Amino acid sequence: MPELNLSIVTPSRKVFEGVAEYISAPGKVGEFGVLPGHENFVTVLDVGLVEIQPKEKDKFKILIVGGYFEVTEDNIFVIADEIITKDEIDRDEAKRELEKYKSELSSLPFDDANYERVSRLVKKFEKMLELAS
Question: 64-76 pLDDT, tens per residue?
């Protein structure tokens, strides 16, 4: 069966390196999936869950907070701004942070310079809680 050579890193750590059968990720223009033989491309990643099906192992998810995704032949390289695994999530803290940023976002006008940053933080903590459940 065809396979993908997958490497997922942040500036400070390697999160996954190995062979995968499938990966889905949150692109800036929508979620996408990659199977072996996919067309080459590079895209910007959004905040969201990445699902990985390693070869001969159980599927798992991680939270990615922005970055870049590159497919070259059957090699995939993901450089993420931040990655959070299920084991790293404190649900109570994530709930508190989500409420704090939702409150802050509700008081910001859409054209405020901080609107996008706070909106991204809301999405991050929502996805953290989704991953933790």
Answer: 999 999 999 889 9
